[in-house]
Specification:
Shape: elongated
Radius of gyration: 22 Å
Number of strands: 12
Distance between the termini: 26 Å
Order of helices and strands: HHHEEEEEEEHEHEHEHHEHEHH
Bound molecules: S-adenosyl-L-homocysteine, iron/sulfur cluster
Length: 402
């Protein structure tokens, strides 16, 4: 399979959410300056804009309101004006599935074409939300289901932030309405405590929208997720890695998966453009790297492909000098794929070698496999949707394909 390497990533650079005629713009996903500009455009007085923006920001992101009518410290007239001009609507949930292990997967509709599937993984003391950056992916990693999806578009900042808001809504993770207006909303003890950009898509091919969304997610007066609890995973878009560090400042994960270029060229075809040595140089230079702030290297365990003891030793050699932890991911199969997951003993032996070299090498427990929510199983094709929803989605996709 040849990846579209010569061309720039084919996904559309959607800045503003695509809207139906007459649909109101959303204030979700805008920076403070963006909200201020929208308020100015509807005639809010310049001297009021800062204060109104701060109030609206708090209601949307700290309190999770979806209705301007609930913004109690905003005057009644202003609430009505805002309601007439804007929306706070979330992406629509088409389906929700709950796995035996408590993992939840939502199917969200992102008009006009496509759907995304954020996944929530509960663990003791924390919960991780796995967020998508694109519908589909322009890259074609040979072991990843998402890479087989034909339709690709960038998600907007509104749609990326929307995944977090919907998850908090559905989990009851926003403060309840009785919380006094203006009261501080603690960020501890939330069900969604961590975010990983590890759903569908390559986040560094949708940099501007991902940046905007993650800066909103980490804003201390809103969703308040610490940047240390936000991880951006990339398959290795080397030129964007320094910008991710400087402009977003989240934790970084690299989908490495192979220790030799000839094999990585097949597993992660982007490697032909940015080979392992260049990728690791970018990692060494990642801003803010330290033993307390390590890079996670993801390594999918593929039987007889990349799982030998020699591979493990080479991995250790390659990463020397980089503050790193290694996340071993048992391969999650999907219909029609030719790879198999390594045997459990092989994974443990691999993990032992990496561990003895001083690297933490947790084996990621597959979560949500029964609902195809595990890593690499996400695909927004609609086989698993109810027939009515599938037809509606297909109609939307067909409408917008020209
Ligand atoms: N595109 C980005 C982020 C999304 S993928 C990236 O590739 O990093 C999230 C992780 O799941 C990546 O490490 C990816 O390589 C891995 N993955 C993909 N398909 C998988 C599968 N079938 N089984 C296990 N992990 C998989
Ligand atoms: Fe895209 Fe990541 Fe899947 Fe590769 S592993 S096809 S980069 S989503």
């Amino acid at each position: 399979m040849t990846a579209p390497l010569a061309a720039a990533p084919a996904a559309e650079a959607v800045k503003k959410p695509p809207r139906m005629p007459g649909e109101k713009p959303s204030l979700v996903g805008l920076s403070r300056a963006g909200i201020g500009a929208e308020l100015a455009a509807i005639g809010v007085e310049p001297k009021q804009i800062r204060m109104r923006t701060a109030q609206i920001w708090n209601w949307i992101y700290a309190r999770g309101v979806t209705d301007f009518g609930d913004m109690l410290n905003v005057s009644k007239d202003m609430r009505a004006t805002l309601d007439g001009a804007f929306t706070l609507a979330r992406p629509e949930i088409v389906a929700e599935q709950v796995s035996e292990d408590g993992t939840r997967k939502w199917l969200m509709r992102f008009p006009p074409r496509g759907a995304g599937r954020p996944v929530y993984i509960p663990e003791i003391g924390r919960g991780t939300l796995c967020v998508s950056s694109q519908v589909g992916c322009t890259l074609t990693c040979s072991f990843c289901h998402t890479g087989t999806q034909k339709l690709v578009r960038n998600l907007t900042a509104e749609e990326i932030v929307g995944q977090i808001l919907v998850a908090r809504d559905r989990l009851g993770d926003f403060p309840d309405k009785s919380t006094p207006v203006g009261a501080a909303v603690p960020s501890e003890g939330r069900l969604v405590s961590n975010i990983v950009m590890m759903g569908m898509g390559e986040p560094l091919y949708n940099f501007d929208n991902v940046k905007e969304a993650l800066l909103i997610a980490s804003d201390g007066e809103g969703l308040s997720l610490s940047k240390r609890r936000i991880t951006l995973s990339t398959s290795g878009v080397v030129p964007m890695i320094p910008r991710a560090g400087e402009e977003i400042g989240s934790m970084l994960a690299i989908s490495l998966h192979a220790v030799r270029d000839d094999l990585r060229d097949i597993l992660v075809p982007l490697n032909k453009k940015y080979p392992i040595a260049e990728l690791l140089d970018a990692c060494r230079a990642y801003p803010g790297l330290s033993n307390a702030r390590r890079i996670t290297f993801e390594y999918v365990m593929l039987k007889d492909i990349n799982d030998s003891a020699a591979d493990a030793r080479e991995l250790v050699r390659l990463l020397r000098g980089i503050p790193a932890k290694i996340n071993l991911i048992p391969f999650n199969p999907w219909p029609g794929v030719n790879y198999q997951c390594s045997d459990w003993e092989t994974i443990e032996a691999f993990s032992d070698i990496v561990n003895r070299a001083g690297y933490a090498s947790p084996i990621r427990t597959p979560r949500g496999r029964d609902i195809l929510a595990a890593c690499g199983q996400l695909k927004s094709e609609s086989e698993r949707m109810r027939a009515r929803e599938r037809l509606a989605l297909e109609a939307m996709m067909a409408d917008s394909e020209d």
